[in-house]
């Protein structure tokens, strides 16, 4: 065979290999989030990637970046709107564009995990998602549960009357500050990184967070009680950039949604296991779990909540309170 023919055949073979590679993997989606590798959100993100790769025969793969290694939440949201980022896990931060996203974390709006599921997967959830798509240009494709926030202290607290001016660390969010003020506490906004030392030296008397953060921050070393206020039940979305979404074929969109559904189911299994494990671990570490009159907390804090929510969603919050 002449050298020219050999060169031509080699070139054609190389082109076929490259073409085969392109067919095998048409796109890689980058998914960045703030959770660590042990968090159920991260594990569910990996599950999403595995399922999507299977459903598309390897044409779409997902690279998952935990611990804000791809960027902070707001940076990723902005990147998704500009088309420079594909996916993230986000929630009420989206209320900066879509006011209805605030419904993801309203104190005592959801009476139980089942009630929250009814809302998130029902008509209100559909309205929230549609507004996020239209106003934020980000598409929710699944939602993950978050552990309810509970109050920790060095004494049992079963009703708002027992707060009695308790110095309580809260996030720097007006809704949270006014809510706890209405309950009779003395809320103190503070960076999370300062909470352990402030509890240790008595600058504050308590704090409120989900069991996962109570455990990971070692608050059991400086707090003796977990008071089961469960004052905020909430969810968070697995999302994809609307620009990325619109570049997918109808077949691939179906695959993305099916992979997201499987990831959501998987995350719920992990979440329930984690909540039980965390409760057992904290009790073994010496913390006492206290049953609380949640209705009294909810009733006393309702006016403060309604005062702080956007007028656009206030009627929805009122309806949730009345259910």
List keywords for this structure.
323 residues; alpha/beta; D-Maltodextrin-Binding Protein, domain 2; 9-stranded mixed beta sheet; 12 helices; disordered N terminus
- Return Rg in Å: 24 Å
Structural domain count: 1
In helices, the fraction of residues equals 40-55%
Element pattern in H and E: HEHEHEHHEEHEHEHEHHEHH
Mean of pLDDT: 92
Sheet having the most strands:
9 strands, mixed
CATH level-3 fold name = D-Maltodextrin-Binding Protein, domain 2
Topology overview:
Elements: H1 3-24, E1 27-32, H2 40-55, E2 60-65, H3 73-82, E3 87-90, H4 113-120, H5 123-136, E4 138-153, E5 167-170, H6 174-182, E6 186-189, H7 195-201, E7 206-209, H8 211-216, E8 225-241, H9 242-246, H10 250-284, E9 288-290, H11 294-308, H12 314-322
Parallel strand pairs: 1-2, 1-3, 5-6, 5-7, 8-9
Antiparallel strand pairs: 3-8, 4-7, 4-8
